[in-house]
Amino acid sequence: MKYIVDVNGERITVELDGAHAVVNGERVDVALTPIVGTPVRLVRLGEQVHRVTARRGDARGRWTLDVDGARVEAEALDERLRAIRDLTAASAAASGPAPLKAPMPGLVVRIAVAVGDEVSTGQPLVVVEAMKMENELRATAPGRVTAIRAEQGMAVDKGAVLLEMEALHA
To answer: Is 70 within the bounds of a domain?
Structure first.
């Protein structure tokens, strides 16, 4: 399985294959060993061994790690989810909320908001199923839902506008 990992702002490609990993093109032997009765794991990368604890973050794939006493923020996503997250971020407008568009063709499974709802950054808005996986699309900025252009069970094309939002006025 191939993952794209952002660690403190640096992007790393990791391919896992049993007892080996390819990290940014370099093959290394890897092992993960839990220390019984503790949240600590020993992570062996080649000849190096690190003590690691991990806590889930506020979103899918996000982690706060303690690596040998140093705190590290990481986001680990498979290639498909990384592409979706990058597309969502690229379509976000800096000045306010942008229309929520389908990142790929799929089927609308659930709409988590209604017209008039105020939403915050990161709040789930719509779930789209694509390639037998559910993708939760979230708000990229705070705003108010002004229109819903999709409905549950609707098939959508890539780029289809699912809902529209406006900035909140103070």
So the answer is: yes
pTM above 0.90, yes or no: no
Dihedral over Cα of 142, 147, 152, 153: its sign: negative
pLDDT tens-digit readout, 10-61: 889 999 887 899 988 999 999 999 999 999 999 998 999 999 999 998 888 8
Residue 116 is encoded by which pair of tokens? Answer: 């008039």
Beta pairing partners, 50: 43
For 66, the domain range is 2-78
DSSP 13-60: EEEEETTEEEETTEEEEEEEEE-TTSS-EEEEETTEEEEEEEEE-SST
The Cβ of residue 163 has, within 10 Å, a number of other Cβ atoms equal to: 24
What is the C-alpha separation between 135 and 88, in angstroms, rounded?
Answer: 12
Do 157 and 95 share a structural domain?
yes
Provide the 10 A C-beta neighbour count for residue 4: 20
